[in-house]
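re the bet — no i am not wrong, look at it urself. input seq straight from the record:
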Amino acid sequence: MALDSNLLYGEMVGSFLAHMAIPLLMSMLVGVLPYMMLQQKLLVFLALCVGLSFVCQLGFLTIMQAISCQGIKDVRSIATGAGIAACITAVMIAIPAYVEPMRLVVSQLFMTHKTLLTPELAKINDILIDAGDRVMKASIPAKTNLDNSDPMPLQTGGAAITVMEYEAQTFQEITNGVMYWSGFAGAYGIGLGSLLAAKCPATS
């Protein structure tokens, strides 16, 4: 029996959405674990994502074979297809995890990236902010009697973030990037896995 294209596309969309949800849920789980270094937290996070990806793809491909072949005929082909799909996920989520520009291009759509400043640069930064505030206050004209509006409020900010805050920011950026890349990995994984899982054994 030939693979129904509607079934294939439907499972690809389902896998895409599931693989976006997996990193989000795993980041929440890893976030409540006792304090670990960022690299340790990242390895646990990625391992959980890949493990759940395998389970997720296994479920989708099992359903695909059950429908396409009128029953589960070859468990090995399902497991092999799910393994291939999980490997695709592992490769694609490693890209935003370890290549900063590839995760920032996604994460900056949802949050502002703040750089980590050394204590010396932080002091210089604070001095510049204070000097900028003074210049702005001196350049804003006093309010007139024609309108009783207050002068435009000054914008402050730009303070340095601590190392722990920077690590938390980095982990959130990685989560955002992994969600995006993992979604496409899930869809591609179903496409490739279906070549094995939906291949029904010949019957005599």
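see?? The longest helix spans residues 163-197. told u. also Residues 150-159 have pLDDT under 50 and may be disordered. so pay up
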